[in-house]
Amino acid sequence: MTDALIPETVPGYRSGFVAMYGRPNTGKSTIVNAIIGEKVSITSNTAQTTRHQIRGVLTRPDAQVIFVDTPGVGKPRTALGEKLNRTAAKGQGEADLVCFVVDARSGYGKGDAFLAKTLDPARTIVVLNKIDGMKREAVAKQLMLVGGLNCSAYFPVSGFTGAGIEPLVTHLIDRLPEGPQWFPENAVSDISDAHWVAELVREQLFRVLREELPHSVATRVIQWNDQHITVEILVERDSQKGIVIGHGGSVLKKVGTNVRKQLAPGFHLELVVNVESNWQRDPEGVERLLNIE
Ligand SMILES: Nc1nc2c(ncn2[C@@H]2O[C@H](COP(=O)(O)OP(=O)(O)OP(=O)(O)O)[C@@H](O)[C@H]2O)c(=O)[nH]1
Ligand SMILES: [Mg+2]
Question: Which candidate in 69, 188, 234, 279 could, as Cys together with 54 as Cys, close a disulfide (CB 3.0–4.6 Å)?
């Protein structure tokens, strides 16, 4: 990068990168969407929905915070699992601050404790999510459990209701260093249009399909002609093709309808299903299919 490309730093203006990090399904992407006020990262109740570092940009008069959503970290069983863990580790390693997101409902557990050991407490903020509908005593008990981590701050929040989100954002901004405005004022994300449409299709597939199948699914835009978008859905085996298509095309129809609702009017979406044999277990297949930035 040459000097000319680095934006100017205005005295008093703060900026930096805040990674959302934690076990799968703790609500990291939901929190990022709540903070940005727009959907920038897909969500579902299937573990490891997020597969990339997704950047959501929050611009305020005095600061710009780039939230880096990362895949949930779990015990890897495939090359995909290993890649997701690496992506998450890189995201948190490079960030100025890390929000370690814990699911208060399922409770702080062994998996969380294992991850916590890999974090630098001085730049880690513990975010206890999903407190909506929980009793005060239950939240307090979870706070006691995470309190032993010696992290720099603890915030009980709900990505659903927005409770606790603003105090968290204010705290993060206060702790960021002075820095330039990296993204234009109106930017909310750095994801390309094609990647976003592929993500929306994957989100609907995750929401419609059974628990295990989503991990076998990858999506990518293979053609974008004016308002006609073709998204390829890849599965690992022939037998999965039928499930993704659904009886009489019912699954694809539902997915297509739900995605189109989220696109600007006039777009035509075509979904095609192909097999990429066992891609999830093949490191090269994983690199090829996830490299759609
Ligand atoms: N009740 C409740 N549910 C939530 C909240 N935040 C997220 N969820 C739900 O928890 C599930 C997981 O949410 P995600 O935002 O996809 O979680 P994630 O941590 O990004 O998951 P991965 O990307 O798979 O690691 C979804 O079903 C959400 O609707 C919350 O504050 N309250
Ligand atoms: Mg996520």
Answer: 69
